[in-house]
Design goal:
InterPro entries: GH28_Enzymes, Glyco_hydro_28, PbH1, Pectin_lyas_fold, Pectin_lyase_fold/virulence. The chain is mostly beta strands. The chain has 5 helices and 28 strands. The strands form 3 sheets. The chain has a 22-stranded mixed β-sheet that branches.
Length: 495
């Protein structure tokens, strides 16, 4: 597969945290303050690095010569070779289709590369092909046409049974691919812009008869790399790999308004296996990341879990939903997920697992490590009553299994409720572990570490004080006190 060079992510400095500490003034001596300072530096560097991600940050722009587009395949084409015009007005769908067709004939020769030069390239949805690199130059913008009559309709996803918003078919994605192998979407931080504003307005006014389409959707494919680009203003979910294997998303910026941009999830791995998401900045109108695997009886029947997923070195904001979620559509199962080096700021929730009776499936072997929350309403959430179903055919007795979930090195400031784990009689949460947690709180109420029907343990010192449902162990993992209150309910949604 093609590899592209990436800048050193700012999170690498964390490995030198203790050395830096020797040289900074006394007032930075506490671990909590130092950690916050390092995250602020990392956060600032993301904005400098992704120079065009927010229109108002023009102060970071600098004059520089246009970078040459590297050749990453044996044969490289330019979109203008096929009649493309980057004036923001001319429709370039035919140019993209001709270019992809030419590349599809080069599979036995290592494939081909399509260069999109600087300019605004308006297009209707188009498909990719195997052994293809789509390269977006600096200041290149692929613009999705915002008239739904140009967007093809597709059958519902087999693991969902219907469109997510309407019965029947759904709109396809702006950039789409099925049954592909060896596909790269990369560049010099060029942009794919879905121009979702029209879609969002029509959705709110109930003027659409079909489920909106994602910005980029790759289905039933393998060996996919998406790197060094900006994705913004998707009509619906932004990046949706569906039933794919060996997917890497690296150095990607994903943007949508933090309000009034419904369902603009950043990245939704759906029934995917062996996936890495790293070094990304995400600020959207729904979940930053939502790991999925099908909806109720359709997901159970499809039977493809999301498994072996690594998420690391992310800065995420979600004022509407959560930074990183699992579910709620998780009926095919979710397992072996690691989320580490995550910074969530100015968000409603930080990390969340959401499910309900009728989902079936499981969420197990989930590791959260080195998380930082800044001005977040609820830090850690597990919710088992997310009752939204595709139709009346779901089995209300299909209870998901939630078990083996670990939270280690959790820190933050300005958090209203650090933990809310809401299990229930039918869906208890089993074998949860907390270790090394210190979260500054905004409300000095007693019940801010909230639990219901939870079994697990706390190792060492945790602040704020944990709920009584959990066993207590010392730092050497010796049992101090075993809980006899696992089914106690201490959930308060009033604050």
């Amino acid at each position: 597969m093609v590899e592209t060079s990436t800048p050193l992510p700012p999170w690498r400095f964390h490995g030198h945290r203790l050395d830096i500490k020797r040289w900074i003034p006394t007032f930075f001596s506490s671990h909590k303050t130092l950690f916050t300072v390092l995250w602020i530096a990392a956060f600032a560097s993301v904005f400098v690095w992704q120079r065009n991600i927010v229109d108002g940050f023009s102060i970071f722009r600098r004059a520089a010569p246009t970078r040459a587009m590297p050749r990453l395949r044996p044969v490289a084409f330019n979109l203008t070779d096929f009649g493309g015009v980057g004036d923001g007005v001319t429709l370039n769908t035919k140019a993209f289709e001709k270019a992809v067709s030419a590349i599809s004939k080069l599979r036995k020769k290592g494939g081909g590369q399509l260069n999109v030069p600087a300019g605004n390239w308006l297009t209707a949805p188009f498909n990719l092909t195997s052994h293809m690199t789509l390269f977006l130059a600096e200041d290149a913008v692929i613009l999705g046409i915002d008239d739904e009559k140009y967007w093809p309709l597709m059958p519902p996803l087999p693991s969902y049974g219907k469109g997510r918003e309407h019965p029947g078919p759904r709109y396809g994605s702006l950039i789409h691919g099925q049954n592909l192998k060896d596909v790269v979407i990369t560049g010099h931080n060029g942009t794919i812009n879905g121009q979702g504003q029209t879609w969002w307005k029509k959705y709110r006014k109930k003027l659409l008869n079909h489920t909106r389409g994602p910005l980029v959707q790759i289905m039933w494919s393998s060996d996919i790399v998406i790197s060094n680009i900006t994705l913004r203003d998707s009509p619906f979910w932004t990046l949706h790999p569906y039933d794919c294997k060996n997917v890497t998303v690296r150095n990607v910026t994903i943007l949508a308004p933090i309000s009034e941009a419904p369902n603009t999830d950043g990245i939704d791995p759906d029934s995917c296996e062996d996936m890495v998401i790293e070094d990304c900045y995400i600020s959207v109108g729904d979940d930053g990341i939502a790991i999925k695997s099908g909806w109720d009886q359709y997901g159970v029947a499809y039977g493809r879990p999301s498994t072996n997923i690594l998420i690391r070195n992310l800065v995420v904001r979600s004022m509407v939903s959560a930074g990183v979620s699992i579910g709620s559509e998780m009926s095919g199962g979710v397992s072996n997920v690691t989320v580490e080096n995550l910074y969530v700021w100015n968000s409603r929730r930080a990390v969340r697992i959401k499910t309900s009776p009728g989902r079936g499936g499981y969420v197990r072997h989930i590791t959260y490590r080195n998380l930082t929350f800044n001005n977040v309403r609820v830090g850690i959430v597990i919710k088992t009553d997310y009752n939204e179903h595709p139709d009346e055919g779901f089995d209300p007795k299909a209870f998901p299994v939630l078990e083996d979930i670990t939270y280690t090195s959790i820190h933050g400031e300005g958090v209203r409720v650090p933990v809310r784990i809401h299990g229930c009689v039918e869906i208890p949460v089993r074998n949860v572990t907390f270790r090394d947690m210190s979260v500054g709180i905004t409300y000095k109420k007693k019940h801010i570490f909230q639990c219901a029907f939870v079994q697990g343990r706390v190792i060492g010192t945790v602040f704020p004080a944990p709920c009584e449902n959990l066993d207590l162990y010392d730092e050497q993992e010796h049992l101090i006190k075993r809980s006899d209150s696992q089914n106690v309910t201490d959930i308060d949604y009033d604050f």
